[in-house]
Amino acid sequence: MHLESEREKQHLQLILDRVIEELDVDRGNRFAHHSYVPAHIEAQQLGVLSTAATAPQRARHLRRLLHALASISADLETMVAAMLYCAGLQAHRLQDKVPPNVRDSLAGIDELLQDKVWLDSLGSSFSDLDDSNARILREFVFSASQDPRAVVMHLVDVLVQLKNIHEVPLFQQHIFALECLQLYSPVAHSLGVGKVMWELEDLAFRVLFPSSYKSVEEWHRQIWRESSKQLETAREEFMHHLLCHQPLLSLVEGYTITSRTKNLFSTFKKMLRSNKRKEEILDVVAMRVIVRLRPDLREDASAQARACKIVYEQAVALWGAENEWPGRTKDYVSVPKGNGYQSIHTTITHPTGFTFEVQVRSEEMHMRAEHGDAGHGLYKGGGTQRDSVLRFASAIQAENIACISVQKLKW
């Protein structure tokens, strides 16, 4: 249920008030100063639950879960479901405490809760969570879950647990971390919830391979210290170059340039698969240029391809063809991947000496790649039932839950 009307919000707020009453919350103790609470939930309406009647660890977990859900703009129904779940309450217990016209919203929350409880038992479905069994479970998630928000809520819940895994014995840490890598991280990627996926992978990596994690982490920090200012300068000079390029003005309305370092576990996997030393991984630092075409051209595939090609050519022209790495250019715009993924990739050494990857795609290509039709997660997230994955990704996009956790620079 996507919250559109004020009436729906009022209904859910009434349910939230009843949940807080059920939890016996000290109503003077509130989230008062946290900017992460979504705009549609006023801070004073989400009790902190530090004095709740439930066990202290449940209240602590709920606080963490609400914080994490808010960071990906989860809707109010999901917030209410999280409160009920952590308190061990069932939605039907509130039926007599809310007006009849509010009970439809309660039914939706109840369905979300049922899916969440089912997902809790997923990891224990097989005693041996090898690649084959993990693949079966991932497909089962996509085909059997009724509400995609329950899957996202579960992934966030898993992430919260993983962040606080030091609270359980070491052998349980290893079991849970392996479960995250085999099952939950691929599901998160298939659904386009990149922020959750990257954190799951890196935290599980730290638990399972602490020495390798420390080595890669220290190297990443060094790379970022050395390149962050240079990359910022490169972004600024490239943006200025693009805005001055006349042929693009007839096609393009604007650009978004983002930067990132490859997440730690991705670097580790690439080293193992390619038998490379970490210094040989050339896409640790990357710049992504998202091209926003003029409104009348946004659905024009040829205009999108033309604009991306020109932007790529301007990157090479600005920094010099001699600084582009041979064999590293991949034009997935002209020849899309089998799953529809489109982007132009190349690797460039800046005249100042640091090497980075450049990715160029249109805004439409980017949205499809991250959230929908291109199914970018199908080849990285391990999903093979395309229709099921895309149905989930589209539903999550419609609910405005999925997000891209990159720092954006907009001009």
From TrEMBL:
Keywords: Kinase, Transferase. CDD domains: NT_Rel-Spo_like. It comes from Porphyridium purpureum (Red alga). Residues 259-383 form the RelA/SpoT domain. This is Putative GTP diphosphokinase CRSH1, chloroplastic. GO terms for molecular function: kinase activity. It comes from the Eukaryota. GO terms for biological process: guanosine tetraphosphate metabolic process. SUPFAM superfamilies: HD-domain/PDEase-like, Nucleotidyltransferase. Transmembrane segments: none annotated.
